[in-house]
Specification:
The chain is α+β, with helices and mostly antiparallel strands. The chain has 10 helices and 15 strands. Bound molecules: adenosine-5'-diphosphate and magnesium ion (MG).
């Protein structure tokens, strides 16, 4: 109102109209805007007669104007937001482009790698369908067989399989077609275009192509040369082994001849003596005894040689070791002097072992006989059995002369014998150790000069038929 009065009073004859905009509170408290025009009407003397005032509600326009005022601000804000979004999108796009480039490069590389792997790899790659039709083959694979790739595509893989192996290969393809398992180290023969046979070692597996169709990938390596080399090596090794055997046999024959000649010489001398002194009964008896002991020596030698050359029976049988020991001791009673006692401590209910019973008896006989022969005066032999870590241990312990430490390494050698009266032949332990080895067991010795000796024979309890 105050403004209305002020504005009205300012009107003059020269400037009788004014207008302004002002807000006004409505009865309901809301603000509305009005555009008000005031006109002063003057009388002839130039004094204000009246004021005329017209007001137009301009609220709607005012609001529109206000909005319009704020619009550039909003617009600016919007532009700013959009620009930012664009900037981010741009960064993302650039990143994606880079990624894409990288992927493309990697793809190119991997394609090249794949090409190298597939085409130039020195292995033959075949893919075949489940019926055996060749779907693809690498260049190397085709070349190895003397074909061009095109000549093989679409043909049956059987075309390059050697006649003798066709059935097996067909069966293997059938197996693999229904299995997820891989075939490894599968050796068979292929036939080249020129008819030459090559040996290959292959592996195969069922794979699925991009369209979900199953096929078989076969990778083969030519092993013909390798096999040839292996065959040649085996042939040479065999020849070498035969030569070694012959040499050994020759050496053995020489040693045996020597062993037999010695007593024969003695026998000859004694017979000469007999012929000369055939009337002297006492002399005859002495010569006869000497001859007898030398004949006995030859007999023992031939017995040992026989058991040495005796091969293991092809089949091994369950053996009750305790029982076998008791029988062996009984058979050795003839060699026992009354001053020697044999004691046994056999673990009851031992498991049976699969073994060559006759061979084991030779081992037991040799070790017990050695023990008997080691005792010069009174003595005791203790024979025990026990179970030790899946092994059956047979021990023969004596309190005889014992063995010097320096000789222990030699006692298992052929013809190594040091005994009083040159009684020994030196084959017993060599034979025994060979027999124990055939049972995949061990024979060990513990000894102290002047105190005694113990032999331990360890035999695996789970001995199977596969004795060497
Ligand atoms: N229990 C033992 N006590 C002492 N020496 C032993 C015993 N067993 C073996 N020997 C020594 O080992 C050597 C080789 O034994 P062996 O091969 O059975 O041949 P041999 O009994 O014919 O002499 C024997 O000559 C002996 O010197
Ligand atoms: Mg002996």
């Amino acid at each position: 109102m105050e403004q209305l009065l002020k504005k009205s009073r300012s009107l003059t004859l020269k400037w009788p109209v004014t207008a302004y905009e002002h807000p006004m509170r409505r009865w309901d408290g809301k603000i509305r805007w009005f555009y008000r025009t005031i006109r002063a009407i003057f009388d002839e003397s130039g004094v204000v007669k009246e004021y005329q005032s017209v007001a137009r509600d301009t609220t709607a326009r005012k609001h529109a104007e206000e909005k319009l005022e704020k619009y550039p601000q909003r617009l600016e804000e919007l532009v700013r937001q959009r620009t930012e979004a664009l900037r981010i999108a741009n960064i993302k796009l650039n990143k994606e482009l880079n990624e894409r480039k990288k992927i493309e490069l990697a793809l190119q590389n991997s394609k090249r790698r794949y090409e190298l792997l597939f085409e130039e790899n020195p292995s033959m790659y075949f893919t075949i369908d489940l019926k055996g039709k060749i779907l693809s083959v690498n260049k190397f694979g085709a070349q190895q067989l003397g074909y061009d790739v095109d000549e093989l595509l679409g043909k049956s893989v059987m075309m390059v399989i050697c006649k003798e192996d066709k059935k097996i290969v067909q069966q293997q393809i059938k197996n693999i077609a229904h299995s997820t398992k891989e075939i490894e180290s599968w050796e068979f023969r292929k036939v080249r275009k020129d008819g030459k046979i090559i040996w290959v070692k292959g592996s195969a597996r069922r794979v699925v192509d991009d369209n979900g169709k199953a096929m078989i990938l076969i990778v083969c390596e030519d092993i013909t040369e390798k096999l040839k080399a292996q065959y040649e090596r085996e042939r040479l090794e065999k020849r070498l082994a035969e030569r070694e055997k012959l040499a050994l046999l020759g050496q053995l024959a020489a040693e045996i001849t020597h062993e037999i000649n010695n007593p024969l010489d003695i026998i000859m001398t004694d017979i000469d003596g007999l012929i000369e002194d055939f009337r002297d009964l006492a002399q005859i008896s002495s010569f006869a005894q000497k001859i007898r002991s030398q004949v006995f020596r030859i007999h023992r030698l031939t017995e040992d040689i026989l058991s040495y050359s005796k091969p293991l029976p092809p089949e091994v049988l369950p053996v009750d070791v305790n029982n076998l020991l008791i029988q062996t001791i009984e058979r050795l009673q003839v060699y026992l002097r009354p001053e020697i006692k044999i004691e046994t401590k056999l673990k009851p209910a031992l498991p049976l072992i699969l073994a060559d019973g006759i061979g084991l008896e030779i081992v037991f006989k040799n070790t017990i006989q050695n023990a008997i022969e080691s005792i010069t005066q009174q003595g005791k032999i203790l024979i025990t059995t026990q179970l030790k870590n899946n092994h059956l241990r047979i021990s023969v312990k004596d309190n005889g002369v014992g063995i010097e430490k320096s000789r222990l390494k030699d006692i298992f050698k052929n013809f190594y014998s040091i005994k009083a009266n040159a009684k020994g032949i030196g084959l017993g332990l060599a034979i025994s150790s060979a027999i124990v080895k055939k049972h995949r067991g061990t024979i060990k010795v513990q000894s102290k000069k002047g105190v005694g000796t113990t032999f331990h024979v360890d035999l695996p309890v789970h001995t199977t038929n596969e004795l060497a």
